[in-house]
Amino acid sequence: MRPTIILTTLLLMTLTAMAQAVDIWQGHPGHKRVEMTPYTVPGEGHRAVIVCPGGSYFWHDIDTEGHRVAQWLQQNGIAAFVLKYRVAGIPAFITHYRLLWRGNRYPDPQDDLLQALRYVRNHAQDYGINPDSVGAMGFSAGGHLVMSGAELFAPDERPAFVAPIYPVVTMTDDCVHKRSRRALLGDSRMGDQALRDSLSLERHVPADCPPVFLVNCQDDPIVDYRNSVLLDSALTAQGVPHLYLQYRTGGHGFGASDSKGTAECRQWRARFVQWLSTL
Description:
Radius of gyration: 18 Å
Strand content: 15-25%
Number of strands: 8
Order of helices and strands: HEEEHEHHHEHEHHEHEH
Mean pLDDT: 94
Structural class: alpha/beta
């Protein structure tokens, strides 16, 4: 009976956390509901991380790259907020209806991340966090999202730190992840070279970029590992404080799982906690 009790308790904890989701756009007329789930830590003055799951900007890997990540951060004394930012959606993946109708596309996900940062900072006292220590962590396309926040937002609105994990980076280089590019740009803007350039993160790293924790694997079969190499080179050229961990094995999509990926790549979690403590 003991395993059953444990599983039931974990399920109830998860359902409780999900029931506490907030609408970050509540009170803003004209905005669709965008949910964010808080995982708070007792006490005050904690660091916080907005977690952005991957999914090629078409969907969300809300479990492995969302709630499990938040639970792991919470267990390490770091408040976490899982952001279900706007994505293109399955219909847009299956069809090309966005040739005729706008649908969700850039800058919708970026607007959601910016609003999430504002929301968390404005409610810092309610959540027991330090408003000056709110960072963002993203996976795959979510990694592109958090890194774009570090580069494209106004300096006083950027995350305090960012952790792009096996991120999509470029929209122009031959190692581009085409599915993410299509989802983010929208079918009607696929030929917009200026927009592609503006969202190629290796081209727009500012000298005052917040600290970056970057992770990927050489054997990634989804997002070419050279995306992170491009970003690392750009961060180095600008003198941005960052740590780049390139693992030999692990693939893609392991998030905070204890079974996905490899033992090698799963070391990233301990390294992140260690890195964060040095900031």
